[in-house]
Amino acid sequence: MAIQLYRILPLRNIEVSEWLPFLNCRSAIFALCVSQIRSGIGMSISSAFAQRLILLSTFVVCGCSSTEEPVAVPSFDANSIWSQALASLDKDGDKLLSEEEIEASPSLTAAMPTTDKDGDKQISDTELKQRVEEYRDDYLALMPFACLVVQDGYPVVDATVRLVPASFMSDSIKPAIGKTDSEGFTVLAINGMEIPGVQVGMYRVEISKRDDGEEAIAAQFNSETKLGQEVASDVEGIERDVVFELNE
Ligand SMILES: [Ca+2]
Ligand SMILES: [Ca+2]
Description:
Elements: E1 3-8, H1 16-25, E2 27-33, H2 47-52, E3 57-64, H3 78-89, H4 99-102, H5 106-110, H6 112-115, H7 125-138, E4 146-151, E5 154-155, E6 160-165, E7 176-179, E8 185-187, E9 189-190, E10 201-208, E11 210-211, E12 214-215, E13 228-231, E14 242-245
Parallel strand pairs: 4-14
Antiparallel strand pairs: 1-3, 2-3, 4-5, 4-8, 6-7, 6-10, 7-9, 10-13, 11-12
This protein binds calcium ion (2 copies).
One calcium ion binds at residues 116, 118, 120, 122-124, 127.
């Protein structure tokens, strides 16, 4: 019998009602184990309540049958990730990632506050491996991730937001995608998944919008993106909507 664990960090506009139909349709037996809930869950939760709540619950789904592959907790191989990071970023071959080398990776740049443990603006093997161990300790299959896309103070409507795993993590985690609504807001999901949520890890962010077949957003936000995002339970501000400002 397959058993999966989904620990869920709710964000604004993500309602429990969005998750329950998914879980019901794929579960012969459905058990909802609520831990660390400070008050009750209805079929929906208010925005304010969702914002205040840090760690909601553990869903245990047993006996699933579905054509959709279940989302497993990623298995991060720290040694492999470090080797791949060196191969793509360590240009001078000193087995240390310098500030200049890190600049080439928007995903690692975004993760510096949590990964650069000694604050010297460089990343050593110990630091990256420790961060990967922390991802493993999170033990999350999915984390809700919501964002706003803004340009010159206005929402960017109908833009596609992609979280693309860092090249050195592409074996461990999957890309996620979302499309902004009339408020420039979107909740991301792994490509092809109905259930919202993304995997813990480091991503570059690509934001694209087609107008008459032409890319309407500057290359520095898509094909040559400088945007990055780390997803993990201890990333500052992750429990709120992340704001991407497309100011050139
Ligand atoms: Ca180096
Ligand atoms: Ca360091």
